[in-house]
Amino acid sequence: MILVTGGAGFIGANFVLDWLRDGDEPVVNVDKLTYAGNAETLAPLANDSRHIFARVDICDRAALDTLFATHRPRAVLHFAAESHVDRSISGPGEFVQTNVVGTFTMLEAARAYWNGLAGGEKEAFRFLHVSTDEVFGSLEATDPAFNERTPYAPNSPYSASKAASDHLVRAYFHTYGLPVLTTNCSNNYGPYQFPEKLIPLTIINALAGKALPVYGDGKNVRDWLYVGDHCAAIRTVLQKGALGETYNIGGWNEKANIDVVHTLCATLDELRPSSSGAPYAKQIEFVKDRPGHDRRYAIDATRIERELGWRPAETFETGMRKTVRWYLENSEWIAGVTSGNYRHWMETHYAGQA
Ligand code: NAD
Ligand code: DAU
User: Fold this and answer.
1) Residue 156 CA: which ligand is closest?
2) Where would I find the NAD(P)-binding domain in this sequence (predicted)?
3) Which of 93, 153, 169, 255 is the most buried (most CB within 10 A)?
4) Nearest partner of 206 among 195, 192, 191, 217, judged by Cα
5) Measuring CA to CA, how many Å separate 80 from each of 31, 76, 127?
6) Contact 285/212 with Cβ under 8 angstroms?
7) pLDDT over threshold 70, residue 126
8) CA of 242 to the centre of ligand 1 (A)
9) 3-class secondary structure, 201
């Protein structure tokens, strides 16, 4: 049995679905179901006895203790977090609560449980913390990519809260010997991503005939990784990672935002041309920049390849095509997540930005 937190979110749900597709080890899936968590994504597992869903806040120590005692997991995969940078700017409190206090509470619950294990079970236990490349801060155009020794320099409330959580994880290894692993990954894209993030937002707005908002000059650079590749990397680190170590995960795919948006527009022009016949790129609008917007992220993923043998399987082109197709074929899922809270966010966040 493994325990996954945040398994109703984008990456966590992809991880759980892939895990149960490839094997039979059960999963207890711990998720508070915030606006970003979506039970619909897990619908294919509704009658699957290998999947146990627990609607629990990771800040709730008593509930976590019960889950550990009941299910006795051999590993924790910790995905749960507040994950959207723009929301961390308009409301940082939730980020400190979930990402810092929540990770601390997870570590305390895991430590108490692990201390009660004996022999082989204790030795085999793992706590894998899923983190981000944003903790390293921003690069200039010619700087080398982030590696595992790059100093932390977080710039947004989101990245600062993730950095704090990474430090706690590190401290629990050095102080208590808790068998932890940390991964720092670049921007993910793929099925089931909540459409507040650049790629699904662009696809959905394009199809709806709405503006495609590009912050600032559109030249900010991100490294993009297909979510299935991230999940495979996490499985690899869980299986073979060295205790207390960190592994950078990336796609070797640095792209400027404006180029990502143009690629999406061109793919949609081909797969689902607009009814007017106009290219989707005509809908691009440059809008006010994100405050403190990091200019460039780039990941040097040499270590995980050299030491653990992982490399992404998808290229940017194959991953983007799969992703666009998925959004075209899953309009019901989109309708389910683009109501209520989402509409409110879109109306308030983008109001008057053009
Ligand atoms: P997401 O926002 O899509 O999902 C987060 C999930 O966590 C949701 O299901 C939500 O309900 C749950 N959650 C939030 N607060 C909770 C709480 N207090 N208790 C229990 N559950 C809670 O996020 P994501 O994009 O899937 O990211 C998952 C993890 O990967 C995060 O830790 C994020 O920092 C990290 N990460 C994301 C990316 C990316 O590009 N999306 C890249 C690198 C790392
Ligand atoms: O780098 C890893 C990180 O990637 C993860 O840790 C975060 O959880 C995840 O949200 C993502 O952060 P970003 O801020 O890079 O992702 P986002 O999709 O919000 O934005 C990607 C880029 O596109 C960024 O430079 C901001 C820009 N952007 C974003 C939105 C939502 C726009 O130009 N317009 C937009 O409307």
Assistant:
1) 2
2) 3-323
3) 169
4) 195
5) 7, 11, 13
6) yes
7) yes
8) 24
9) helix
With a 6 A CB cut-off, is 129 part of the ligand 2 pocket? no
Ligand 2 closest atom vs CA 185 = 2
102 pLDDT band (50/70/90 cuts)? very high
Q: For residues 153 and 149, give the distance between their C-alpha atoms in angstroms, rounded to a whole number.
A: 12
182 token code pair? 């940390």
d(CA 177, ligand 2 centre) in Å: 35
Question: 171 Cβ partners below 8 Å, 6+ apart?
Answer: none
What is the set of active-site residues? Answer: 133-134, 158
CATH class in words for 2-189+227-252+293-314: alpha beta
Residue nearest to atom 8 of ligand 2 (CA): 83
Strand order in the sheet with 27-31: 51-55, 27-31, 2-5, 75-78, 126-132, 180-185, 246-249
Look up tokens 């399987």; give the residue.
Answer: 313
Separation CA 49–CA 130 (nearest Å): 26
Q: What pLDDT does 189 receive?
A: 98
Pair of tokens at residue 20? 């149960």
Cα atoms in the Cβ-side hemisphere of radius 13 Å centred on 331:
4
Q: 57 CB under 6 A from ligand 1? A: yes
Q: Is pTM, for the whole model, over 0.90?
A: yes
Amino acid found at 1: M
Distance 188 CA to ligand 2 centre (A): 10
312 lines ligand 1 (CB under 6 A): no
CA pair distance 228, 220, nearest whole angstrom: 24
For ligand 2, the distance from its centroid to the CA atom of residue 255, given in whole angstroms, is 12
Return the pLDDT at 117: 98
46-76 residue pLDDT tens: 999 999 999 999 999 999 999 999 999 999 9
